[in-house]
Every structure is written in C-alpha cells, then in structure tokens.
Design brief:
single chain; mainly alpha; flat
C-alpha cells in the first residue's frame, strides 16, 4: 500500500491549483517556455502509470520534463499537491457513459465498470487513500455523474451518497486485490496455479483434510473454478450483482409504504 495519500497538503494552495481557469495551465517564467501545471500533472501521471507511485518523485517529474527540480516547484509546491492534481485529472478524464434513459441497474453497473476501467488505466489510483479527496473539477464532475445513477430510486440524499460510496468502495477493493494478485505473480515469477502446484507436496504433508472437511471441499471447488485463490473477474461480477440485488430489495421495500 502506498504511503502517500490525498489531502496531505495545504488545502488552500491545492484548491487554487485545482480550480485554475480552463486553458490556463499555470504558465510561469522559466528556462523551459510553455511549461504548465497541466504538463507537470500529465508527466507525473505517465510516470505513475508506468512505475507506480514509488517511481514518482519531484526529481523524476522534473527529469521527464527536462527542467530542474527547483523550476518544477514554481508550478507545483510539492508532491502532496501533485498527487491531488493527478487524482483530479484522472477523474476529469474518465469516459462517462450517457445512461440517462437506461434502467437504474444498468446505470449503477455502468458506474462500477467506469471506475474499474479507471483503476486499470491508472493502477496507482486504487492504492491512493482518499479520505480527504481533492475537491476539484474532476471529482465534482465524477460525483455529479455517478449520483445521477441513483436518482429516482426513492433514496434520500444521505442514502444516495452512502449507496454510491459503498459501490465505489467495493470496486476499489476488487482492484486492490487484483493488484495484489499481480504483485504476487510478479514477485514469485509464478501464476497462482503454478504456485499451488509447486507447493502441493508440502501442503499435502501438513494439511489434514479430515480436520477441515468443509474448508477442504469449498476451497478445492473454488480453486478449481478460479485456477487459483482469487479470480478478479468473478469477484467483481459476483459482488456487483449482490450490490444491485441489495439495492433492488431496498427500493422494493420503500415502494410498499
């Protein structure tokens, strides 16, 4: 898990940067003409996309742009502010499905898939804690779009916000599990299936199926179905349908009164 988090900077300075006028990239005088806050943010996103947040430093961004770190600080005060700008830019650039006329389950599912696609494009977003998210134009556009999926279901405002938060938390948890699975495969140079096959003799010696018959039966069935301990596709599809079923139950119960 990344140590960095959003909202760890000076909120006043960050808000000034987030809400700069469209087309005004924050140009400053310096050795590299035409450098803007937008250019800094996009360079940082590129570095994080390719190497994760561990590869992201003010020095590495400066090198990417061909300027000195001191020059970079005249555009963005520090890494904490930069992370907020990156996150909001990723939100702003998200493709948004026009689901105005679609059934509500289709709308909510579209929101889930849009966020899953975001995490696949920018893996670092899934690892970045957002307890104090940047209140920039990207976040506000995202929030407005996603709330519309829950509008008209009979939920009050607090419930709409809670339902969206629950959905997004689920999608993020699946994305993080997917990243953990990828990291384990990368670190061990083996897929889950290969790892379990390699360790099967040891497991057979230390594990007594007779003591844990239910766990053995269920674990074996799941492992055979998923070819490993975790299947991100199944986890996402199964969990999303349960969320939709739960919202269906809630809306139906409301309509009875």
């Amino acid at each position: 898990m990344a140590k960095e988090r959003s909202g760890a900077d000076d909120p006043a300075r960050t808000l000034e940067l987030l809400w700069r006028e469209p087309g005004q990239g924050g140009s400053r005088r310096g050795p590299k003409q035409g450098l803007t806050v937008d250019a800094v943010v996009q360079a940082a996103i590129g570095l994080a996309d390719s190497g994760g947040l561990d590869a992201l430093t003010m020095r590495s961004v400066a090198q990417q742009l061909g300027v000195t770190p001191m020059t970079l600080y005249t555009y963005v005060p520090g890494k904490a502010e930069l992370l907020d700008l990156m996150l909001d830019a990723a939100y702003l650039q998200m493709p948004r499905t026009d689901h105005t006329a679609a059934p509500w389950r289709t709308r909510v599912e579209a929101v889930a898939r849009e966020n899953r696609d975001l995490y696949r494009r920018h893996h670092w977003v899934a690892t970045l804690p957002t307890t104090r998210p940047p209140l920039g134009p990207g976040l506000m556009a995202k929030y407005k779009h996603e709330l519309a999926a829950f509008d008209g279901l009979g939920l009050d405002d607090v419930e709409m916000d809670a339902a969206l938060t629950f959905l997004l938390g689920f999608v993020q948890s699946v994305a993080r599990a997917d990243l953990d699975t990828q990291a384990a495969a990368r670190d061990s140079a083996m897929s889950d299936e290969q790892w379990w096959a390699a360790n099967a003799p040891l497991l057979a010696r230390v594990f007594d199926p007779g003591r844990f018959p239910l766990a053995t039966r269920v674990g074996s069935a799941a492992g055979a179905a998923h070819q490993g301990v975790h299947n991100p596709e199944h986890a996402f599809s199964f969990g999303l349908q349960r969320i939709l079923d739960g919202l269906t139950h809630l809306t139906v119960s409301r309509s009875r009164y």
